[in-house]
Amino acid sequence: MPYRLGAILAVAFGVGLSVIDSAIANVALPTIGRELGISSSDSIWIVNAYQIAIMVSLLSFSALGELAGYRKVYIGGLMLFTVASVGCALSGSLQTLVLSRVMQGFGAAAVTSVNTTLIRIIYPRAQLGRGLGINATVVAVSSVAGPTLAAGILSVADWPWLFAVNIPVGFVALVLSRRFLPANPVRVRGHRFDWRDAVMNALTFGLLMASVEGFSHGLDPQLLCAGIALLLIVGFLFIRRQLHEDYPILPLDLLRIPIFSVSVLTSICSFVGQMLAMVALPFYLQQTCGYDEVQTGLLLTAWPAVIMVVAPVAGVLVGRVHAGWLGGGGLTLMSVGLFLLAALPAEPSAANIVWRLVLCGAGFGLFQSPNNSILIASAPAERSGSASGMLATARLVGQTTGAGLMALLFELVPGNSTHAALLLSACFALLGAVISLSRVRLPLPEGLR
Questions:
Q1: What is the pLDDT of residues 96-133, one digit of tens each?
Q2: Is the domain covering 250-449 a CATH 3.40.120.10 domain?
């Protein structure tokens, strides 16, 4: 247990840093833009560079973990993330800051690509759900802590300290990782990492993200069509090549496992719904309900705060209740909360809003741990890295799609966009619930029966 506790802390610190840094810079964008002398539109690259770097490299790092060892990839990612944080803190121009953020993103991708695989190694098979529940709690706490931590730092220090605080935490995570993370045997031997596949993977997901963003922001149709055409060509060649690989970067072999593919689809639906709601709610609460920024931030804390409580409980229940029922019930509860948020009166009280947000958070927390458990446990042990990468990729695809749909709704229904977004979010959660419940008919992977 002492070694397991050290390993859990090592994973928690690394995952927490990667999640926090996806949002910690958002609050400071106006300040950074003013001090670096750049426009507001250019400052968005400080955020986008990090997200794009994660998206284009995540599956490649998960495949590398199967060849070189998950522990090595995780520690290497932590080292890169920490060094890149030094570069971010010392940056004096947009170019150096964006480059450092890209390096940070690659480090975060290495960490998140194998973190759930490490949990599978750290915990006994019978306690996998509990471990993934703790991991879901860390992600939930980190996601809500980003803006709050940024506000606290900016109240006493300049913006470079947003990145400088990563350095001591990253150092502690590195010490814990080297001391306590278990060395996993490399089961895939005689196979070399294919850099051509990694480049094609990056182009495919990069063009996918660019197409979604371009469509949602009204990019010139000719440029958008050219981008989509290039995406189809590169994507087709990439997938055709992956179908003939024994250990593909894009794990199409795992998608042939029915319960695995259904769990990936469920995860995408849930994160589309969550991101739609999380982007729409601040506008809805401020513009429609009349709350200010501080009140809105405090109210929205109810969603992730409940996940902190429910996700570990759901992880414990995985061994007792079929994960398909837990996931389906959780997403149904989340959809009910979202429909009720869309039906709020014109001037709702804080209590009226909070209990609806609690329903959403409880539902998502009840879904996340069981779904992650099925997804990881249904993959063969030697393909755990690819399963972990697909878990993180499903989250990123869902979040990117949700944000793109919200931007599109701003264009299509400007007078009623947030209300429409909440209804659409509820529909995605309900669709995820239906897909999740379909897993009840499928055999559970060994260890969850």
A1: 998 999 999 999 999 988 887 888 788 877 777 777 77
A2: no
Pairwise CA distance, residues 247 & 369, whole Å: 27
How many C-beta atoms lie closer than 10 Å to residue 26's C-beta? 13
Spatial neighbors of 57 by CB under 8 A, at least 6 apart, are 105, 106, 109, 110, 198, 202
* CA-closest candidate to residue 279, choices 394, 408, 393, 392: 408
CA 188 remoteness from chain centre: 27
Contact 302, 354 (CB under 8 A): yes
Q: Which of 221-230, 245-254, 332-341, 358-367 is predicted least confidently?
A: 245-254
Give residue 41's Cα distance to chain centre: 24
- SS3 state at 253: helix
Q: Which CATH class is domain 1-183?
A: mainly alpha
Q: How far apart are the first and last CA of the chain?
A: 25
CB 113 within 8 A of CB 388: yes
Residue 147 and residue 169: Cα distance in Å, rounded? 18
Closest CA to 324 of 430, 437, 446: 437
Contact 29, 46 (CB under 8 A): yes
pTM: 0.78
Residue extents of the structural domains in the chain: 1-183, 195-244, 250-449
Instruction: Give the C-alpha separation, 361 to 182, whole Å.
Output: 33
423 exposure class (CB count in 10 Å sphere: 0-12, 13-18, 19+) = middle
Measure Cα distances from 269 to 223, 237, 411, 433 in Å. 28, 27, 22, 9
